[in-house]
Q: What sequence folds into this?
């Protein structure tokens, strides 16, 4: 029988965890390219993927799904991701034409300015600042998710997990596709659901609040609206651990160790709105990863 049918959560070795960060996820592909070159130099480019467990959130979920789809040939999967990111444009993520922006963003801002006065008409309720329908088209064209069940059955892939946040229930959800004997897990305001990962799951995980509309998914017989998986992600490494990883490679895009030191006695400038917004977004979407890595290091040191 296939090794996947006898999957044990302790048999898989190395997982890769890819964080969110929007366009910063392009840096993750640079790291993957470097790993691919190291494999080629070592003559290991024909061996199975070094990351049988792929875990991602937000933009990192898209990269993780790309690796999972190419688990039968890691280097080709990295090349495909690199090609997509190298030729990336805003029009592939949201409607950037004047009519598209006017239809979504301007209408959203107008209703916000009017204090939602027009929302008494159901069809006038704003959904998001931008329309990210082009992103779905890009994912469908570039990510053959239908390959994942075969890769799991053949043992070339152990698991793929992506995260999203439910606006409907307030929970942080980890969707994972793995072998039949991988049990789900749950914690306070967090739970895992085994499911066939679809492009709609990726849309949910990467739907930045307010900017992109929530994605609708059926969860246990109930429709849920879900948004960016980096929200409320208090333990980004947890899915990899639950899926049996003994080693974890983390590719983050935050500035966990960089601190800006001003000259002694110099009065810092008053923070701009962009600085405040950037700090808030980093706190919500990026800082949890560094905190969880430190927690894992302390646990390992104690053990």
A:
């Amino acid at each position: 029988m296939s090794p996947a049918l006898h999957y044990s959560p302790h048999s898989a070795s190395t997982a890769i965890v890819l964080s969110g960060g929007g366009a910063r996820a392009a840096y993750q592909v640079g790291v993957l390219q470097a790993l691919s070159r190291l494999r080629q130099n070592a003559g290991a480019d024909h061996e199975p993927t070094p990351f049988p467990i792929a875990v991602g959130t937000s933009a990192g979920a898209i990269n993780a799904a790309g690796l999972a789809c190419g688990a039968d040939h890691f280097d080709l999967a990295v090349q495909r991701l690199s090609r997509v990111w190298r030729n990336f444009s805003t029009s592939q993520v949201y409607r950037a034409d004047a009519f598209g922006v006017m239809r979504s963003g301007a209408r959203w801002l107008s209703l916000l300015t009017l204090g939602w006065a027009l929302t008494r008409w159901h069809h006038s309720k704003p959904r998001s600042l931008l329309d990210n329908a082009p992103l779905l088209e890009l994912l469908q064209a570039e990510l053959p998710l239908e390959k994942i069940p075969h890769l799991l059955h053949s043992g070339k892939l152990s698991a793929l997990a992506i995260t999203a946040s439910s606006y409907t229930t307030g929970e942080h959800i980890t969707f994972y596709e793995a072998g039949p004997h991988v049990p789900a897990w749950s914690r306070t305001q967090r739970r895992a659901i085994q499911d066939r990962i679809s492009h709609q799951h990726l849309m949910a995980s990467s739907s930045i609040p307010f900017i992109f509309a929530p994605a609708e998914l059926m969860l246990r017989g109930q429709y849920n609206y879900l948004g960016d998986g980096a929200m409320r992600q208090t333990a980004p490494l947890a899915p990899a651990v639950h899926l049996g990883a003994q080693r974890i490679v983390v590719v983050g895009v935050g500035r966990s160790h960089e601190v800006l030191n001003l000259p002694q006695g110099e009065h810092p400038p008053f923070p701009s709105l962009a600085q405040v917004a950037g700090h808030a977004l980093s706190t919500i979407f990026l800082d949890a990863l560094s905190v969880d890595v430190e927690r894992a290091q302390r646990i390992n040191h104690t053990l």
User: Anything to note?
Assistant: Residues 1-11 have pLDDT under 50 and may be disordered. Strands lie at 14-18, 53-57, 159-166, 172-178, 186-187, 190-194, 215-219, 222-227, 247-251.
